[in-house]
């Protein structure tokens, strides 16, 4: 059984609030006023930015790694194994 | 939730396309619509979007409203549908990242009493935000609007028993989370 206290807490903190004045402006001009980015949209943008940043670091690290062709590697192996 | 003669006149004027009448209707219900949206989604920008969509839907479909029914119930149904649509459109992000954003946005000093109250309200709002949509909307209609079980059942198109059951589950879940919150935070909400 839940305690009646939770009802009191919800009544105290979930009451009505006044709507912002700009709501009417948004209804009068729905096509003019662009949507304000929601918190979710902002967080999503932050996540996309973080992903791109990590990706950029990985690509940069990869490009800094010296690349040796297979033929060159084979030659190096043969030289070592032949005792030269 | 029965219309009086003045309300009927205003609605009929809206149905005839009178903009001033729509403004009157908007003024009468703006706080109600915005509050439901805000308490349901917990985000001011999203609540503005939902309230805007609700009134635009009201404007476009007021011709369909039949005087015999309750206007408030009809309006509640529109805002509830907008809230649920919003929920479907925008998937919830990981609570960790939401918490991180809150942490970055939190004021350095929160000793002021008014800030504390706002903070507590935000905590309760967050707890409500973790409920499944069908329980959350019942909680909002019950505690933001103070509606009776029968009225909520009519708006949601379900039985009174279903409303009672959802509210009971929501209460239990919130009671558990509230207890956990108190133990962790050591403060009274």
Distance between the termini of chain B: 32 Å
**Beta strands of chain B, count:** 0
Distance separating the two termini of chain A: 84 Å
Helix content percent band of chain A: 55-70%
Question: What is the CATH C level class of the largest domain in chain B, in words?
Answer: Mainly Alpha
The total beta strand count of chain A reads 0
Unreliable runs of chain A, pLDDT <50, ≥5 residues?
none
> Spans of chain B of 5+ residues with little confidence (pLDDT < 50)?
92-96
**Rg over CA atoms of chain A:** 31 Å
- As a whole number of angstroms, the C-alpha radius of gyration of chain B is 19 Å
The chain-level structural class of chain B is mainly alpha
Shape of chain A: elongated
- Percent of residues of chain B in helical segments? over 70%
Characterization of this structure:
The complex is a heterodimer of chains A (84) and B (189). Chain A is mainly α. Chain A is 64% helix and 0% strand. The termini of chain A are far apart. The model of chain A has no long low-confidence stretch (mean pLDDT 79). Chain B is mostly helical. Chain B folds into 2 domains: 1-91, RNA polymerase sigma factor, region 2, helix turn helix motif (Rna Polymerase Sigma Factor, Chain: A, Orthogonal Bundle); 96-189, Arc Repressor Mutant, subunit A (Orthogonal Bundle), CATH 1.10.10.10. Chain B contains 9 helices and no strands. Chain B has helices spanning 5-15, 19-41, 44-61, 71-89, 95-105, 113-129, 133-143, 149-156, 160-185. The interface between A and B is large, with 32 and 45 residues.
């Amino acid at each position: 059984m839940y305690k009646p206290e939770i009802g009191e807490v919800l009544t105290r903190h979930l009451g009505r609030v006044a709507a912002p004045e700009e709501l009417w402006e948004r209804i009068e001009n729905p096509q003019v006023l662009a949507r304000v980015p929601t918190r979710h949209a902002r967080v999503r943008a932050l996540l996309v930015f973080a992903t791109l940043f990590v990706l950029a670091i990985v690509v940069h690290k990869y490009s800094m790694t010296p690349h040796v062709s297979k033929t060159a590697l084979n030659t190096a192996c043969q030289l070592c194994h032949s005792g030269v | 939730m029965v219309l009086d003669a003045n309300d009927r006149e205003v609605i009929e004027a809206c149905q005839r396309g009178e903009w001033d009448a729509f403004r009157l209707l908007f003024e009468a219900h703006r706080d109600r619509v915005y509050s439901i949206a805000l308490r349901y989604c917990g985000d001011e920008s999203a609540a503005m979007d939902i309230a805007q969509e609700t009134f635009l839907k009201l404007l476009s479909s007021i011709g369909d409203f039949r005087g015999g029914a309750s206007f408030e119930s009809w309006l509640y149904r529109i805002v509830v549908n907008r809230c649920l649509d919003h929920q479907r459109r925008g998937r919830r992000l990981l609570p960790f990242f939401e918490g991180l954003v809150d942490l970055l946005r939190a004021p350095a000093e929160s000793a002021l009493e008014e800030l504390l109250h706002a903070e507590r309200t935000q905590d309760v709002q967050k707890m409500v935000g973790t409920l499944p949509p069908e329980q959350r909307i019942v909680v909002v209609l019950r505690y933001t609007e103070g509606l009776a079980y029968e009225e909520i059942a009519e708006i949601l198109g379900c039985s009174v028993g279903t409303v009672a059951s959802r509210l009971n589950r929501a209460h239990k879940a919130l009671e558990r989370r509230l207890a956990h919150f108190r133990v962790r935070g050591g403060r009274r909400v």
